[in-house]
Each structure stands twice: as C-alpha cells, then as structure tokens.
Amino acid sequence: MAKLPDGFLWGGAVAAHQLEGGWQEGGKGVSIADVMTAGANGVERTITPDGVQPGLNYPNHEAIDFYHHYKEDIKLFAEMGFKAFRTSIAWTRIFPNGDETEPNEAGLKFYDDVFAECHKYGIEPVITLSHFEMPLHLVNTYGGWRDRRLIDFFVRFATVCFKRYKGVVKYWMTFNEIDNQCDYNREFSMATNSGLLFPKGSTDEDRASAMFQASHYELVASALAVKAGHEIDPANQIGCMINFTPMFPASSKPEDLFMAEKAMQKRTWWSDVHVRGHYPAFMEAYFKRTGYRPDITDADRAALAAGTVDYVGFSYYSSSTVAHQPDNPAYDFVGDKEIVPNPHLKTTEWGWTIDPQGLRWSLNWLYERYEKPLMIVENGLGAVDQVEADGRIHDPYRIDYLRAHIAEMEKAVNEDGVDLLGYMPWGCIDLVSAGTGQMDKRYGFIYVDKNDAGEGTLARSRKDSFYWYQHVIQTNGENL
Ligand code: BGP
Questions:
Q1: What does the pLDDT look like over 55-90, one tens digit per residue?
Q2: Which of 20, 378, 408, 410 is flagged as catalytic?
Q3: CA-wise closest residue to 450 among 87, 60, 46
Q4: How far apart are CA 219 and CA 15, in angstroms?
Q5: What is the enzyme's class at the highest EC level (predicted)?
Q6: What ipTM was assigned to the predicted interfaces of this complex?
Q7: Is the pTM of this model over 0.80?
Q8: Whose CA is nearest to atom 4 of ligand 1?
Q9: The domain 9-474 belongs to what CATH superfamily?
C-alpha cells in the first residue's frame, strides 16, 4: 500500500467511563454511566438513576482501573508507536455535580498527569469533552439536556478544560456521537447521550420531542465551547464527533434510493449544524411540517454560526441498508422495518455488518459534503478472545478487520484526495462495552484479564494484533 502523509496521527481511542474506574476517587461525582448495570444474555443494560443498588453489577465502577494503571497503559501505547491517544475527560471529575462554580482540583490534576505521560512519549492527546458520562445530578435535578441551563454548565466545564490544558491538548471534540439520538426508540441512547429518562408508557413522539430540544441545546453548547476554545488558544483544533453509519439502498427502486437519502439526512443534520453553523433546509422543513417546535432563539442561531468546528471526527463500524415501506409515505422513520439485511456483507457476533469499502465511501461522502479535515476516532471489531495455555492471544479476525479498513482508508486518502488527520481504532485496550456493559466484547490490541462477572487480575498482555499494528505504524501504513 501507499504510505499515509507524514504526521498522520496513528493511535487508539477510549472513553473515561469505559476504562478509568476510580468512580469515587479524587472527589469524582456520580455520572450517569456509573448507575448503568451490565446487560446479560441479550438483555439491554439498565439504569438506576436513584442511585446504586446493592447486588447489581456496575462495571464502570472499576472498569479496567486505568485510574491507577495509566502509566503502564500509556507505555504500552508508546511501544505500539502511537502518535495520538483519544480519551475523554470525565465531567464528574472536574465538576462532580455539574452545576458548581468552582472545579475540583484533584480531577484536573489527574488529567495533567495523564497528558504529561502521553507527551513523555510524544503522544498527542485527542480529547472528547462529553462521552456518555454526564453528571447524574444534572439528570436528576434538571432532566438532562431538556433544560437550557445545561448550556452554561457545559460551557463552564469546557472553558475550565481549555484554560487548564492550554498548550497541552490541541485536538478536542465536544460531544461523542451526538447523532446517536436519532434512534429515539431506544431509551438507552437517549440516556447516555443527553441524560433523557422517560416514564413508562412514553411514546416515540415524547422521546423525539425531548430529543430535538436536547440536541439543540447541545449544539448551542458545543458552538459556544468552540468559540471559547478558539479565543483561549487559537491553536486549538476543535471538532465534532458523529457516529457515521452510511445508509445504502436495498435496491435500485426509486423509493429505496430516496429512503436511503432521507435516512442519511436523519443521521447527518447534527454534523451539518456543527460544520455549517445553521440547520439544513430539510430540518427546518421537518419542524414546520411536524408538531416539533424546539425552543430555538435568534441568539442561539447567532451562536451556532459563530462556533463552527475545525474538523469532523467520526466513528465507523458498519453500514446499514434500508428499504422503503409503504406505511412510511413521508419517509420519516428509519426503524426496524426499514433496516434490512445486506446479503453481500458478513456480520460480527453482535450482528454489526463488516463493510470496509463503506469506510472509503464514508470518507468520500463526508469530505465532499463538508470540505473539512476528517479524523477517524473509532473503528474496530468487537469479539470474544481466547487466552491460550501459554498466555498468548491469537486474534487474526481483528487483524483482518482492521487491515481491510485501513486499506480502504488509504485509498480514500491517496486516490480520492480526502484530507484525513488520523486513525484511532476503538478500545485499543480492552474496556467495558458501551452497549452491553460487559467485558467480553473486546476490541483491544492489549488484553485485560477481567471477565463479565468482574473477576480477574487486571493484568495486561499483548495480543497478536498488538505486534501487527506496531508494524503498520512503523511503516506508516505501507505494510499491512
Ligand atoms: C461507540 C461509542 C463507544 C464504544 C463503541 C463500541 O458508539 O462511542 O463508547 O463503546 O461504540 O460499542 P460497544 O461498546 O457497544 O461495542
């Protein structure tokens, strides 16, 4: 393969609540992630917003205890040759309840130490400000992002971080996978993204209405944070972060082609606002046509226009295929009926399609639409790994997945002219799964000895993919 440009940010990605543990250390407050139990046997994770209940399994409380192992872990990333490490700052370490006026020094100090450790090895920290880990207090007291006051709380948090880590962190992202909320039939993603909890019996309309409002406040908060970040340090590069799942038509029928177009709009309007500073026409038309009337003021519109992002960060795991259904005349819903299997693609053990060419397509689509640098901040294969009797972990399936995706990424850069800043595969060290709350859905190059029941020594070991990725980075992507 052809090499990537010099300075390409090879690395890996994680999120605070999925690996740090130390959920009550250093003055940390309780986040929504801390009250989520693990799912089991196909059952979704549950949320216990009134507090932790004895006897239930809360995997994020210890996670892989990066809080105490970060030196060892960053050393292993350095051994692989990482140029960048994406993690998030747990909001509750800095503002334990989210609405205080003064930050928690011990929390700020923890990230001073983590970033210093990265720089010791020439690793660039890439930081998400909000990755599914908002303070629980903001959920219980304000109803999460339904409440406009959260804008100020978030901007205060972001501003404290920009000031404290000035000259230390250059690459930032505001909200992780903000567009996940389009799946408003799944209460779990509402809770993780926006802290929106719903009473039993709530309808799709209730959830959609709250979601549009919460999303708007998040977009305004993001724009104000971007503006503040640029003022504090003009060298800051501040991006958005979306879950990019391309929607392909199931057939060449015009209805399916248009369904795919509408399904793409349904996912991408968040990044349209982040990048362009205004709502796309199809969303304005949708609000007019439907009963949704989010509170959007003129001052909000001015804020959106003044805080556009510098780059587009995105996760890519799989593609989806959609077919139009006759009972969806306005093409408004992309639900279980519209999403259909793609007979040309294999799937993972968790049913996610494996579509490397979809990554090249995504890079082309995003670059054409936004003409902004892109950053792949998540990609990877969740799989169950076996530890052999000699302690080694052979994971050729993970290497195959990553090799195929990197090859397509390189074509997008070298043949299609896409401006790509870096590649940070997800869960570079095994961690708690966001979707299931379990350990055994593993993504890492580094194995962590801990099982779904929370048992294990937490010892780290290098998988085969560790050495493979090390070689990829050494050759700047030439040798896959
Ligand atoms: C993304 C999230 C991550 C992550 C990943 C894999 O949606 O940003 O936090 O966990 O998906 O998902 P899962 O952990 O469910 O396999």
A1: 899 999 999 999 999 999 999 999 999 999 999 999
A2: 378
A3: 60
A4: 21
A5: hydrolase
A6: 0.98
A7: yes
A8: 434
A9: Glycosidases (3.20.20.80)
